[in-house]
Amino acid sequence: MSAANVNVIERREFKYLIDAPTAAAVRSAIRPFCELDPWAAKNPRGIYTIESLYLDTAALGLFWANHHEQLDRIKVRVRGYAEVPGSPVFFEVKRRVNDVILKTRGKVPRKLWTAMLSDPAAPIPAEITGKDRVAVERFVSIARTLNLRPYTLVRYEREPYFSRIDDYARVTFDTRIRAQAMRTLSFESEARGWRALDDAITQRTLDSLIVLELKFTTHVPSWLVHIVERCGLARRSFSKYGTSIQAFYCPPDLRTPRYAGGWR
Questions:
Q1: Burial of 43 per CB tally in 10 Å (0-12, 13-18, 19+)
Q2: In which band, very low, low, confident or very high, does the pLDDT at 206 lie, cut at 50, 70 and 90?
Q3: Which of 14, 197, 204, 263 could disulfide-link to 177, CB 3.0 to 4.6 Å?
Q4: What span, in angstroms and rounded, lies between the C-alpha atoms of 46 and 157?
Q5: pLDDT tens-digit profile of 122-177?
């Protein structure tokens, strides 16, 4: 689908697992080029909370495609923002082809989303229109064709920055990444059901880690290249969904760190 008829975002996305001192260095280095996302700026701590309900097949086919790093793979999730009660949710399909991310995202009123996914014959409500409707139709088609169902709810705090000098470039720091097993179409969580995904034991490190993500289009901004080199960053694979599935459904021997190739 082209950008003319669907909410589609095409970008590159590089991830790094870093400690707090490195995060402080990166934060200082991006200051001349970036500013805090306005939604996060409304919070005194400069963050917002994201929660994603991930769907998969009965055989966890989407997880295994991700785990084996297939060149063309997808993730299917319903995303919400926990700090804004009553806000809409977003039906997202995140496709990865090599290093290119193609994400479609459609807005759905919170009161409607569970009925749409629980009933395979439910129509798309008339109030979902335009580009949102096309993205939602794609999401629902994939969910119904593959008989997807919920597996995990992932929640984390995001500190997001966007470039003031590029068409599209973002730098995000994700912390307090936690998950719980979820078998129903709901964001209602158990207070004691959370398991940390970024803690030292899970990541086999001395301290909890911060997930740094650099997002940009076809061309890497030169200032990002200099920051990666100056801070000595090395790419490392980290999937919030994959790690959550491993935490609840897979044996421990799958929980091994993997390093990404390419630019640092």
A1: middle
A2: low
A3: 197
A4: 10
A5: 999 999 999 999 999 999 999 999 999 999 999 999 999 999 999 899 999 999 99
* Whole-number Cα distances in Å, 194 to 145, 176, 181: 30, 11, 8
DSSP string, 38-102: HHHHTSTTS-EEEEEEEEE-TT-HHHHHHHTT-SEEEEEEEEEETTSTT--EEEEEEEEETTEEE
| Alpha helices for 120-231 (secondary structure H) | 130-145, 200-203, 222-230
Residue whose pair of structure tokens reads 């609840």 in the numeric block: 248
The rounded radius of gyration (Å) of the Cα atoms in the chain is 18
Q: pLDDT tens across 67-77, in order?
A: 999 999 999 99
Q: Token digits for 162?
A: 């966007």
Do strands 169-181 and 195-196 pair parallel, antiparallel, or not at all (unpaired)?
antiparallel
Residues in the chain: 264
Q: Amino acid identity, residue 53?
A: L
Alpha carbons 156 and 50: distance in angstroms, whole number: 6
pTM: 0.90
pLDDT recorded at residue 126? 95
